[in-house]
Amino acid sequence: MNANKIISKVIKEKGRIRTVFFIGCGGSMIDLYPANYMLNAEASDISSYIYTSREFVLSLPKRLGNDSLVIVCSHSGNTPESVEAAHAAKEAGAYVITITHNKDSKCTAPEFVSWVYPWGDDVKTEYVPVGISLLLAAELIEAQEGFAKHEALIKAIDQIDGVIGKARLKVNEELSNVFANSCKENPFFYVLGSGSAFSQTYGFVICSMMEMQWQNCCHIHSGEYFHGPFEVTENGLLYVIQMSSGKTREMDERALAFLRGHTDRLIVIDALEYGMDSIDSSVREYLDSSLFYAINCELRAARGKLFNHPVETRRYMDIEKY
Amino acid sequence: MNANKIISKVIKEKGRIRTVFFIGCGGSMIDLYPANYMLNAEASDISSYIYTSREFVLSLPKRLGNDSLVIVCSHSGNTPESVEAAHAAKEAGAYVITITHNKDSKCTAPEFVSWVYPWGDDVKTEYVPVGISLLLAAELIEAQEGFAKHEALIKAIDQIDGVIGKARLKVNEELSNVFANSCKENPFFYVLGSGSAFSQTYGFVICSMMEMQWQNCCHIHSGEYFHGPFEVTENGLLYVIQMSSGKTREMDERALAFLRGHTDRLIVIDALEYGMDSIDSSVREYLDSSLFYAINCELRAARGKLFNHPVETRRYMDIEKY
Questions:
Q1: Looking at the 3D structure of chain A, how many domains does it have?
Q2: SIS domain: from which residue to which, for each copy (chains A, B) (predicted)?
Q3: In what helix (H) or strand (E) does residue B186 lie, and over which residues does it extend?
Q4: DSSP for residue A62
Q5: Exposed/middle/buried for A111, CB within 10 Å: 0-12, 13-18, 19+?
Q6: Which of A46, A182, B21, B321 has its Cβ near the most Cβ atoms within 10 Å?
Q7: Mean pLDDT over all residues of chain B?
């Protein structure tokens, strides 16, 4: 599949796209977050939204219609809420692209344009949902109104894999054991982040920790931290902070400065120290989430090893009926 | 102030409004959430967004401009991030309405149209930010494209105060002590909710608990619960679930059914049992947040009393420099 060709088809069939809806559940929704974030920051004449699938269906936006592009992501291709959302969008007249790992799934039904992606540690970012959705968003902006950062973004998506490769080594040399051991002493901790990387703040909490490690924790936006959450900060309470490399970084820096003075348990993961300084500063904020995802994977694996709790272990998901 | 008159002025000056941005920090952003939610569900030709103030300024949306209405809420009227956001929006050409409790604040500077609201337990919902923003949104939809639920919403905003009055008594009779005592045994718990009420799921966590009670907890969307977070559920772990009365309720019901079988510590707050059944079902989901806010206030007060931790106590906010 090719983002440029798909967007050409979309525009040929629909004319101008007025609204994009990114739809998924949990990790799949998280993967679409940077594309939604970028569209809203960079497009002057395209609205973009992101919804967890079931809320989208139950509270179907009135502007959803013939001039909408709906991008649904489901790794299994059969997530019931996401399949239902894709059908609801189709019925409303939208152009529906499904992104899935499963070529023989409900998401690859003929009524959808399906992008089937490979999966594994060595698959390049441009071929997985976070990259695919960024590319679709970039091509849409470029096609409809021109996107001055188009080339920079494509280059950044290509470069991020090199950054990630080195970051994996560095995090395992310097941080993974520190983090895993911290979990022994901290039955609960907070994770902070901002910007498009906030998707992986949330993702670290709900996927890597809660789902894969049964570890209690909570996500807080670095900018929101000072409007309530910081009152709970004190020595003995662990904070993990993801420092973005882009425009929202100063929120992370402000939170970090406060945390340094108010807790003795702090883990800092700075995207700039993990190689993001090598990416064009005009677009790197949209790739921070890919870096943090890779780092999150290493951290959860290290915790899994120390706790003898493999990251594949589930007690409810796809085991019980719910 | 009068929402209908303000929106008439907005349209007279700007012509058609294409995009609304709701901007605030913490509790003030939370108050604007139902209006943003309603606009996106009910308007066919108005886009609406909500941002924490600093992220809005740092990642200023390209579509912000002359045809934008920016509604900024700051209780003190001097929240630096929100004041900065109001100025950034004004510079971008938007019509800026500020909603504040402080008539002599930076938010009431002459370049903004300011709505100064009273505050206190007995102020009606239509006069406080959550109601004001809903009314502004309703008037905007009505003026630009017609809003079939306009009258029902106005009536519901009027009725909700009666529901809240009774709910306060009921929660203190039945739940406040149970909740406060639960906090003694649970240094950490989860709060679930959905729809426009999710604003008060988040609000209960970051304002009522973290800020006002130094209580660790975490907010989870009822629909997202099954896509990661539920794996952490087990006996001995406390969950508080806010059951909405509107279209997203079935996500809450699904989460509740699972919780009943997987934890022995569960507190259910059902909007329908607190009087929301008396409100028109086509609009009541937009008022659930007002009900939950009132309940949250009673719950935190009860906890404050039991823990001898008054809800006004702060150790950092407006005390330290940050």
A1: 2
A2: 7-151
A3: none
A4: T
A5: exposed
A6: B21
A7: 97
Indicate whether B121 pLDDT > 90. Answer: no
> What pLDDT, in 10s, does the model give residues A187-235?
999 999 999 999 999 999 999 999 999 999 999 999 999 999 999 999 9
Contacts of A258 in chain B (CB under 8 A): 316, 322
Q: Which of B25, B55, B232 lies nearest to residue A214, judging by beta carbons?
A: B232
pLDDT at B25: 98
Q: Which domain holds residue B285?
A: 163-307
pLDDT in tens, B192-206: 999 999 999 999 999
Q: Is residue A194 part of a domain?
A: yes
Any idea what the CATH number is for the domain that residue A65 is in?
Answer: 3.40.50.10490
Is B321 contained in some domain? no
pLDDT the model gives residue A43: 98
Q: Which of A46, A81, A317 sits opposite B231 (nearest CB)?
A: A317
For residues B272 and B194, membership in a common domain is answered with yes
Q: State residue B37 phi and psi, 5-degree precision.
A: -60, -45
Nearest CB to A230: which of B212, B262, B316? B316
Listed in order, strand segments (DSSP E) in B25-161 are 47-52, 68-74, 95-100, 113-116
- Distance, CA of A78 to CA of A85 (rounded, Å): 11
Residue A122 has pLDDT above 90, yes or no: no
Contact A63 B47 (CB under 8 A): yes
Q: How many CA atoms lie within 13 A of A227 on its CB side?
A: 26
